[in-house]
Amino acid sequence: MLLLAAIWGASFVSIRIALDEVGPLTAVAHRVGWAALALWTIVWIMRLPLPREPKVWFGFLGMGVLNNVIPFGLMAWGQLHIESGLTSILNAATAIFGVIVAAIFFADERVTWPKAIGVCLGFAGVATAIGLQNLRNFDLRSLAQLAVIGGTISYALASVWARKFLGGQPPQVAAAGMVTGSTLIMLPLAWMVEGPLTLRLQSETMLAIGYYSLVATGLAYLLYYRVLAMAGSGNLMLVTLLIPPFAIVLGAVLLQETLRTAAYGGFALLALGLLVLDGRIWRLIPGQVR
Predict the structure, then answer these.
(1) Relative to the CA of 152, which of 78, 84, 162, 279 has its CA 20 to 30 Å away?
(2) What's the pLDDT at 30?
(3) What DSSP state is assigned to residue 289?
(4) DSSP string covering 41-63
């Protein structure tokens, strides 16, 4: 879990480095394109069977849109205007929105009082981190923060999509199919909006792209499913709490970023909300509803 959090925490910084030379859509196209090549290579080495049902491939395409195209694109654009550490803090709200979206679409995911308290704490954390007073003077920074929140909502919708369309698929095939679906969309989109993709880039840009595409996307998805099998979904939720400290420290060291005090207060509230959702807080109180 610490390794996964460190990998994803560093991805925010590497993406910001790449954005100094390439546009956000191009950055995402590189991310999913190289990850797709790496993941299909792994599928081929493992000799995993490929799905033949059109429904599954439709599921891959939809998953690519909801879990890659929309959130990656919104967050990459957002990072042009806000700090990497703040982006990672707002990204931690994914689990909060996930509870709400699951309750809307699935009858067996009702919102209990403990979940409602966790969601409220999470929203309070997001509001504190953004600083709602800053939205009065609406500017690019405010829009960037809302874009990142939009990305977290898309992540939450992706979990619903995966449950409806991708159940029973090997994780390696599901991950490869997903990034392939997003590549089919991002390559032409980036080409039309930002121009042809090129590898004639500065060395630090190429290193950043290599890291966030092959390590923070390809390898991280495989590691994610491995941790899920070992620790379960409840423990895996805690990875979202471990990502921001890595992103904040790396952003300060490598990019000289500084965050407002309110951002740290917002992260504290978000962390408390996630711990409430996870149920760890309630286990400390005998007789409480879980």
Answers:
(1) 279
(2) 97
(3) -
(4) HHHHHHTPPPP--HHHHHHHHHH
pLDDT, tens only, 39-60: 999 999 999 999 889 999 999 9
Is residue 289 in some structural domain?
no
Q: Note whether residue 288 is domain-resident.
A: no
Place of tokens 């979990």: 159
> Which long-range contacts link 58-62 to residues 24+ away (Cβ below 8 Å)?
58/165, 59/161, 59/162, 59/164, 59/165, 59/166, 59/177, 60/166, 60/174, 60/177, 60/178, 60/180, 60/181, 61/181, 61/184, 62/161, 62/165, 62/181
Count other C-beta atoms under 10 Å from residue 89's C-beta: 30
Q: What is the residue range of 228's domain?
A: 2-283
Model confidence over 251-269: pLDDT tens digits? 999 999 999 888 999 999 9
Residue 179 resides in a domain: yes
